[in-house]
User: What shape does this take?
Amino acid sequence: YHFTNESDEMLINAKKLGYNDETGIHYVCPYFFKNKIPKYFHFLPNDKYGLKFMENKDPMTFILRRSNSDINNSLSLTYKDEESNVYQLKIRKTSDNIWYTNWENEDGDSEDVSDSNIENLIKKIMIDNDYKFN
Assistant: This one.
């Protein structure tokens, strides 16, 4: 138990600044998940796009990570296709709290995908297309 608000102030400061030098606390993003943080979510403070992380990963794998632009309303996917090409995909939360992305399906067609739950959206575009998480 804390008898001061010092711990709250540290977290508030980290959220405001993104990173608190004094405490080493990073603000990653708001809690977007329904139950717990999924295993495929990675915070990589020294690998902005997850490219180094994905170098030695198998084809057809993916990670979900914080957005580099709008951390309060979006997340990003880094994924590796069958030919080991690495891609980035932005997932945005709309003003009515619907997660949205534009996904290129296996036929190469552009497809709008949306869901009220981020985990369901990931399932639709990654898991259902045989991608595995790292």
Summary: The two ends are 36 Å apart (CA to CA). The beta strands are 19-20, 25-26, 41-42, 61-66, 74-80, 86-93, 99-104, 110-115, 132-133. Helices lie at 6-17, 51-54, 118-125.
